[in-house]
Amino acid sequence: MNSEQNVVCAKTPVRVRNPHIKSLSVDHLYHIALDTSDINKLETLFGDVKFVCFGGSPSRMEGFVDYINRELGLNENGHCPQNYAAGTDRYCVYKAGPVLSVSHGIGMPSLSVVFNEIVKLMHYAKCRDVTFFRIGTSGGIGVEPGSVVLTEKAVDGEFSHFYKMFILGKRVERPAIVDEDLIRDLEACGRDDDDFQTVKGTTMCTEDFYECQARLDGAFCDFNEEDKMAFMQTLKDHNICNIEMESLGFLALCRHAGIKGAVACVTLLDRLKQDYITVDIPKLKLWQLRPQMLISRYIKKKIGAE
Ligand code: R2B
Ligand code: URA
User: Fold this and answer.
1) Which end of the chain is more exposed for a tag (fewer CB within 10 A), N or C?
2) Which atom of ligand 1 is nearest to the CA of 137?
3) Smallest Cα–Cα separation from 54: which of 109, 125, 131, 126?
4) Which residue, among 111, 105, 63, 68, has the nearest Cα to 83 in the 3D structure?
């Protein structure tokens, strides 16, 4: 890549792939309770965002913004972080310096709604060079519980890496392509003295937590332990090392939006051994910090705050 191309890449704006947007007098980002009636305000508030970190639960993402504030030496007065989406209880949006911390709820439909609105927000705020992360939880397959898995490949329940949607009655498939450089850089953020391992692997992304993840403890189940273990072996044969519910949509949407993205999830249990999550709350809180630590180290490296 020559230096001119480098300069172009270094100023990549967030684009919205929708020609109709231009004709809206006010765009209502309904599920995050923001709108474009004062577009300058959006730029002032969010124009410096470089990293958007998504995670399932609002309280975890509030905790994450506190953590980033501490790591970057911001908010020294200890003010409560402001939830910019406080006008709704659908999602939360917090900010710490160049980092936006956003909840996405459970599953790809919920993720996709907030993803659309955050991409538009980044566009209206004239953000440039933005990287998206999903920082989440998952069930491991033969991986020590508490490990962090960086998704090298995301597949659905049929081992396909295409995120499928129905648009105007037609099936649309968008590939989930991982940014290998970003994964390599994140892997390099793991340290020898970490008390957990960081591994790269294939993630299976499902439509449901129970039957689709081969659990025997949901309200419905038409298979037995033997069937489940045979399926777990099939997952191992496909090099799948964790299961969760958003990676495929997240990575496909990042690629479709032209935004660099990666998924880092801690494993809460080993699905070869159990279905229910038994880790106690204090340990769960520590484990949930692990992918946050990796992303925070990456962010600090990128902004030269180390
Ligand atoms: C991981 O955990 C959630 C289900 O408990 C889901 O959002 C996911 O991907
Ligand atoms: N999240 C999931 O989707 N599955 C698990 O087993 C644990 C967390």
Assistant:
1) N
2) 1
3) 131
4) 63
pLDDT 10s digits, 109-147: 999 999 999 999 999 999 999 999 999 999 999 999 999
pTM value is 0.95
Measured in Å, residue 197 CA sits from the centre of ligand 2 at: 18
Write phi, then psi, for 244 (nearest 5 degrees): -150, -160
Q: Is 201 exposed, middle or buried (0-12, 13-18, 19+ CB in 10 A)?
A: middle
The CA 105 to ligand 1 mean position distance, Å, reads: 8
* CA dist., res. 249 & res. 254, Å (int): 8
Question: Residues 78-109: pLDDT tens digits?
Answer: 889 999 999 999 999 999 999 999 999 999 99
Ligand 1 center–CA 54 separation, angstroms: 12
ipTM (interface predicted TM): 0.99
Q: Which residue's C-alpha comes closest to atom 5 of ligand 2?
A: 139
Distance separating alpha carbons of residues 234 and 29, to the nearest angstrom = 42
Sequence-separated (6 or more) residues with CB below 8 Å from residue 103: 54, 55, 56, 57, 58, 60, 61, 91, 92, 114
* Helix (H) or strand (E) run with residue 282 in it: helix 281-303
**Ligand 1 neighbours (beta carbon < 6 A):** 56, 106, 136-138, 209, 244-246
Which numbered atom of ligand 2 lies nearest the CA of 139? Answer: 6
